[in-house]
Amino acid sequence: MAPNNQPVSDTGNIPRGRGRPRGKRQRSPIKLPSGEELVERDLMASILHVAPVSVKRMGLPTIYIGNIPHHPLNESLNIVASRIRRPQQARRRGTR
User: Fold this and answer.
1) Is residue 71 within 8 Å of residue 55, measured between CB atoms?
2) What is d(CA 19, CA 75) in angstroms, rounded to the nearest whole number?
3) How far apart are CA 60 and CA 73, in angstroms?
4) How far apart are CA 24 and CA 5, in angstroms?
């Protein structure tokens, strides 16, 4: 106790949060009977090493479940792989 009979640590006026904490939960992929997996946009972004906004702009097929965007994993990876182009090789001088 402090000299004036007050507790040393008064917790009466410490602001507290309201309700339970609301944060992003990492959900597991949804497995479909066809063998395809639906993954959330954030997980797809981490697989492709880009931002979630970039995944949205790529125009990948999207399914909304509970207001959360999901992408079919194999189909999306095939679409991204089909867009990869190798640069043309430089022409050699003097030979045809």
Assistant:
1) yes
2) 40
3) 10
4) 45
Residues 11-31: pLDDT tens digits? Answer: 666 666 677 766 667 778 999
What is the per-residue pLDDT across 51-68, written as a single tens digit (0 to 9) for each? Answer: 999 999 999 999 999 999
CA dihedral 80, 66, 26, 74 (to 10 degrees): -20
Name the pTM for this structure. 0.64
> Which token pair is 73?
């994993």
Contact 52, 42 (CB under 8 A): yes
pLDDT given at position 21: 67
If one counts every other C-beta atom within 10 angstroms of the C-beta of residue 56, the result is: 15
